[in-house]
Amino acid sequence: MGGQKGIASFYEAFSQLANVTLISTQNNAAANNFHGNFLPILSASKFRYINLFFFFKLRNIIMQQKATHLICEHPYMGWLGILAKYLCKTRMVIHSHNIEALRFKSTGKWWWKCLWYYERLMHRSADVNFFITDEDRLFAIQYFRLDANKCHTITYGFDFNAVPTVSERLDAKLLLQTQHHIPADHSILLFNGTLDYGPNLDALNTILNDINPIFLENPSFKYSIVICGKGLPDSYQKLESFKDKNIVFAGFVDDISIYFKGADIFLNPLVDGGGIKTKLVEALGYNLTCVSTAAGAIGVPLGITGNKLHIIESSNWKAFANTTMKIDIAKGKVDAPFFTHFFWKNIAEKAVHAIDSSKPMHVI
Fold this sequence. Notes:
Elements: H1 2-14, E1 19-25, E2 37-42, H2 54-65, E3 69-73, H3 78-87, E4 91-95, H4 100-106, H5 112-125, E5 128-131, H6 134-143, E6 151-153, H7 166-180, E7 187-192, H8 198-216, E8 223-228, H9 234-237, E9 247-251, H10 256-262, E10 265-268, H11 278-285, E11 289-293, E12 309-312, H12 317-326, H13 336-342, H14 344-356, E13 362-363
Parallel strand pairs: 1-2, 1-13, 3-4, 4-5, 5-6, 7-8, 7-10, 8-9, 10-11, 11-12
Helix pairs in contact: 1-14, 2-3, 4-5, 7-10, 8-12
């Protein structure tokens, strides 16, 4: 999932700038370029979020490593951060990837209000707060009543700093055409995501039931929609009716970069889920023309996308489809400011400075 990938990539970059000890679940592994200490000692059970006894193990690690800061990914284990802050004299950082309570509210969870009060308490207890978008940061400052000086936007990023070459794109497109039997005169429209996640499945249903029927009413528009991602319900894979409607279910793919390089247009019709849509950032990073709802484009500054991002009012699927059919994919290019903003090294440097650039640090 995008959030998991974001955590791994963030600490790959962050560990090159600070001493880092990463405590993770027992079923996890360190990222390839992680340069710190990796301790897979947390239980994979959901009960780890309320395991009070783990504090004593954490306290020993903090003392051994002489840790100065404790970063909690998401607010859920923030209670551990509070204990460490007062009993181990570390500074506490909450690294938020969404306003979690609002994300669960948007997916219909009845208990979202309880999470709201807990999440607010964790952020108010932190010495430093990281948010994934400016929108989340400003929301939390206003509604959680946080000190703005303690709040920073630490966005999602990627590791490359230039768009694919024309040759790379042509090779990738030929590979997709061959592998999925896509006619040479078809534009390839891409949607990807973890498909057992509610907001992504809702977006897929929107493509199948609202957007694609409009495409089919315009026979001059030659296209194939490729759907990538794990967790696709069996009911979709068994429906033969999709095959004659220009829909290709690719499932989980080993290398999503080939699809980003080979596609012509990226579809992003998400209307909920919160946070930044990591797949949109990656698609733009590959210089892929993107059509997105306004909700799906939160956290991506329009001014740095080089006219490659077309934003449509959420739920206006006729406008979404018509815009897609009229796009000149050769127009525009994502340029340097986009890569500067979303480059992991730059993001990690900002995080180090936000925590405390004046003193040596060891982060847990």
